[in-house]
Amino acid sequence: MQKPVLTIFYQFNPWRSSIGGIQTIIRSFLKYAPDSFEVRFVGTSDDPDEIPFTWREMDYAGRAIQFMPILTLQDDNHRKRIPITARYTSALLRTCLESDFMHFHRLEPTIASKRWRGEKTLFVHNDLKQLASQLKAPALYLALERYLIHQFDQILSCHTGSLELYRELYPSLSDRVAYINNSFDDGVFQPAGDRRTHRQLLAQKLNLPEETQFILFAGRLQPQKDPLLLVQSIAALSHPNAHLLIAGDGELAPEVRAEIARLGIRGTMLGAQTQAEMLTLYQAANVFVLSSQFEGLPVAVLEALGCGTPIVTTDCGDTPKLLSLSSGIVCPDRSPKTISHALDRVLFNSDDYPVEACLRAAQPYAARAIVSQVYQEMLSRWKTRSHPRVPLLRSYT
């Protein structure tokens, strides 16, 4: 029986360590793809001898997929002189990879797909208003967006503000824009049976005192995440046993390391971590912290909550909307004093932030249910292609 084909496009290698929520979402779409679909992924390779633009069958988490690398990339956790997105887009322009369904997670590569046939979906992962303020040439990006945006049959945003912005900017596309819950792999990220033991084992591994209380940050070390603010906040803590763990890498890593040394805080930079390593960190952490200037809905927040770990976050993105008083704290301003005070509250009052409350906050964002619903909707549309066009969208929550 013929199967519909879904092709997913993004500039990374799913079998290698790569920091970012987009990568995590894509991995869930690969892992939980139903057998009723043929799934293809167009990405990158770290092997310079690998032949590009060649499909090969690969196993991902027990699921057979078709994989095509279109460029060689040794490390996608640091920005390059020539942006990775530009290199990926340039490579994509050399071929035609149209299929029944196509998923894109960045706008720029869709320069190549504008004339391709098939249903195209753009996933929006960030606060677009805040992102535009960080661009060097926002007018140029907006012009590019206007040129490309009408090719999409669906635009799915995990950030309510971005959803509203697209409907305002492109009213003719409003029926194609919908909200989708960001998701975490609930088959992996679950609470530890004995958090205290996990914490002690991690302290032992890092040669730290048994009573150490861990504050965890995970993500790219880049201006959006503002890791320097985080380090300054740790310096203002009152808790005597607090220790910062930074899981991630990026262009600000040298500055973060220097700031830790300058302030003399207790902290460990772990670098990029595998999924299994992140699970251990989430399960052992006393609190997960987010110091970002802007966000969509960070997957790391969902993973932490899924492991029963409470959140301290700046007031950005959609994270504040999912937290309850017993699953985390939203800081009213982005000052080191405010963030440190919130962290102290969680560390000194851990019983006020029970595992059960964190799990309740995370439950609506379980990947298996959300991804399954997206695939079911695609399959239904594929089966009715011979009928008049039906509405494509619903909210995936």
What does this structure look like?
There is one protein chain. By secondary structure, the chain is α/β, with parallel strands linked by helices. The protein has two domains: 5-183 and 366-383, Glycogen Phosphorylase B (Rossmann fold); 195-364, 3-Layer(aba) Sandwich (Rossmann fold), CATH 3.40.50.2000. The chain is built from 14 helices and 14 strands. It has helices at 21-31, 84-92, 128-134, 138-148, 160-169, 195-205, 227-235, 253-263, 275-284, 299-306, 319-322, 336-348, 355-362, 367-383, and strands spanning 5-9, 38-45, 56-60, 63-72, 101-104, 119-124, 154-157, 177-179, 213-218, 242-247, 267-271, 287-290, 311-314, 328-331. An eight-stranded mixed beta sheet has the order 3-4-2-1-5-6-7-8. Helix 1 (21-31) links the parallel strand 1 (5-9) and strand 2. Helix 10 crosses helix 13. The chain is globular and about 60 Å long. The protein starts with a strand and ends in a 14-residue tail after the last helix. The model is unreliable at 388-392 (pLDDT under 50).
Secondary-structure map:
Blueprint: E1 5-9, H1 21-31, E2 38-45, E3 56-60, E4 63-72, H2 84-92, E5 101-104, E6 119-124, H3 128-134, H4 138-148, E7 154-157, H5 160-169, E8 177-179, H6 195-205, E9 213-218, H7 227-235, E10 242-247, H8 253-263, E11 267-271, H9 275-284, E12 287-290, H10 299-306, E13 311-314, H11 319-322, E14 328-331, H12 336-348, H13 355-362, H14 367-383
Parallel strand pairs: 1-2, 1-5, 2-4, 5-6, 6-7, 7-8, 9-10, 9-12, 10-11, 12-13, 13-14
Antiparallel strand pairs: 3-4
Helix pairs in contact: 6-9, 7-8, 7-12, 10-13
